[in-house]
Every structure is written in structure tokens, then in C-alpha cells.
Amino acid sequence: MGIYDYKLPFQQRLLDEVDMALEEIRAGGNSHGILLMGASGTGKSHALDLVVGRFGAESQEGYQRIKTCCRVSSAAKADAPSIAAGVLAQLGKPVSTSSGTTKLSELELSMHAAMRAHKVLILILEEFHNALLSNSPLFRGQTARMLKNIWNQAPLESAGGWAIPDTHRGDYRLLIIVSGTDELRKPFDTDKELGSRFSCVIETEQPRFFPPESLREFRLVLQSLAERYGLADHLDANNDDVASRLLIACGAHYRKLEKLLQRIATLSRRHPEQNLSLEMLATAYDQVGDNGHLIGNPFRWSSEEVTAYVKRAMAMPKITAHTTNEKPKGSRKKKG
């Protein structure tokens, strides 16, 4: 995502939580776990970009590369071995798990050793709902156990002090950020031992017309994106009509908003003689808009239709593809 200058409240909170967690870990505290949950297109990936940008500095100590932050995305059929292999690949030690001959215990030992060697302080596991929800109970159990083992790493020869780390003894603690959809909550709530390690839960929200604060945040994101794509002089985020049409068009999905604004910027560059009119916005939406949740092009609706839609949307809990599949003035799809 490309929310550049303005930070949504949850993004700022994530940065603050990471900052405090790292301070406590460096002071000899235990590992920290953060759950970042929310629907697609609400800014999670950009929030993690901000974390890496602020805290993920890389350096060199002799021949050893120091990588403060390691970030891995879980594939659609991710399991514990593939996640461990993903961490190793990020740290320059690629392994293959396709043959099935590599044991999970061996992968975990290699992963822990590599993370220690690179002095990883922040481990980010994105799209983690894939790992916890798409596999059998056995694989889900392996994945949960692996998370617990990463959270609590004591020296192999140590039989004590697991609950309270000792930095002088060489104990290794880190911050683990797990992100994904709202489906993450159930596995962490069900497994109390795992959930207690991830007691910090940060939830994202889809932009909405109501409450006013949500719409204000959408306008600020819109303004930041407009500046990014050279549209700030032509697209006024405080224009109620334009902002409303854009919020309707993107379906409360910031990535779709960014895609639409990119196309608007391209059309504007190609036709500098034309003003940035609703017709140009409508053309951009015709080309790249995802109108599966709407009937027609919102940039070709009348002002009355937009107003009716906004009033209707304000009464809804969320603006999603499942709640907006009709035009605001009560028109029905033709049968047949």
C-alpha cells in the first residue's frame, strides 16, 4: 500500500508498541508478541513497511550481516516447515522443504541459530491466518508450537530461568508481529498459552462515512495519496462530492483506492489539456475499478444518487462488497 505521509491511528499505535517492546527487551525483559488483524486493504502491509523502515536497519559486524528485522509472508498452504524455511531464506540460508525429508526440529534449530547470528530483534509473519486456518489440526498445532518456541528461546544447555531471561547468560528474546485477517483471533483465543504471549492486539478498520472520524481519516489518506501521484493541485480531498464518490468506488479498500488514483494520474498526464473532471474519474474507474459491489459507475451517478447512497451507507456497520450491491435510489437489477 502507498499511504505515505499520514499514518492511520492503528499504524501509529503499532510503531509506538514496537518502540516500547524493543526498549523493554533491550532492558532484559521477555519477548513480546503483537497481533495485527484486519480486513484486506485497510493498511496492514503499509503499517509493517513503516515498522521495517523505522526499526529494520541492517549493518555488518565483521563477516556477519546484522538484520534487525526479518519479514516472511505465509503462502496459501503455509505450514510450520515452510515458515521456518522462509525465515532461513530471508537470512540468506535457503533450504528446500518440497522433498519432505527435512525434519521440522532440524529446521527450527537452524532457524533459531540463524536468527541469533543475525541478531534479529523483530520477526514479522504476514498473512498468518493461512498457516493457522488452512491446514489440519496437526499442522496447526505444529505452527502454534513453533511460535511459542520462537517466543521463548533459552540456551540449549540451560535448565532454568526460562520464564525470566538473563541477558548475561546469552538468553535471546525478540518481538514477534503476526498479521492477518480477523480469522486470526479464534486460534489465539482458543490456545490460552499462545494467546498470553500475544496479548497486544491491534485491529484495523475499514474507512466509513460514519463516524465522522473515520471519514476524516479517509480524507487524510486520500490527500496523502493525491500528493504522492501529483494530483494534489487537482483533487481536493475536502470536496464532499469527490471524496464520497472515491470512497464508494474503492469499496472501503485502500489498495483499490491507490490503484484508481494511479490510473487517474496517468490519464491526467496523457491529457494535460483536460481538467480533472468527473468524466476523467469515471473513465479511470471504467478501466481499473472493481465494480462487483456496485451497480454502475459512481462517478456517473447524480448528486442525489450519491447523497442517497451515503445516507444508506451511514446506517451500515461497514462498507463492503456484501452490503452495497445495489444503487442508492432503490433501483433493482433487471431480471433475466
Describe the structure.
The protein is α/β, with parallel strands linked by helices and 336 residues long. It has 2 domains: 9-203, P-loop containing nucleotide triphosphate hydrolases (Rossmann fold, 3-Layer(aba) Sandwich); 212-314, no CATH class. The chain has 13 helices and 7 strands. The strands form 2 sheets. It has a 5-stranded parallel beta sheet with strand order 4-5-6-1-7, with helices on both faces. Helix 11 crosses helix 12 (278-288). The protein is elongated.
How far apart are the termini? 39 Å
What value does the Rg take, in angstroms?
23 Å
Roughly what fraction of the amino acids lie in strands?
Answer: 5-15%
CATH hierarchy, class of the largest domain: Alpha Beta
Number of helices: 13
Short overview:
With 336 residues, the protein is α/β, with parallel strands linked by helices. Helix content is 46%, strand content 10%.
Q: Secondary-structure blueprint of this entry?
A:
Blueprint: H1 9-26, E1 32-37, H2 44-55, E2 58-61, E3 64-67, E4 69-73, H3 80-90, H4 104-117, E5 122-126, H5 129-133, H6 137-151, E6 175-180, H7 185-190, H8 192-197, E7 200-203, H9 212-228, H10 240-250, H11 254-270, H12 278-288, H13 303-314
Parallel strand pairs: 1-6, 1-7, 4-5, 5-6
Antiparallel strand pairs: 2-3
Label this structure with key terms:
single chain; 336 residues; alpha/beta; Rossmann fold; 2 domains; 5-stranded parallel β-sheet; two-stranded antiparallel ribbon; 46% helix; elongated; disordered C terminus
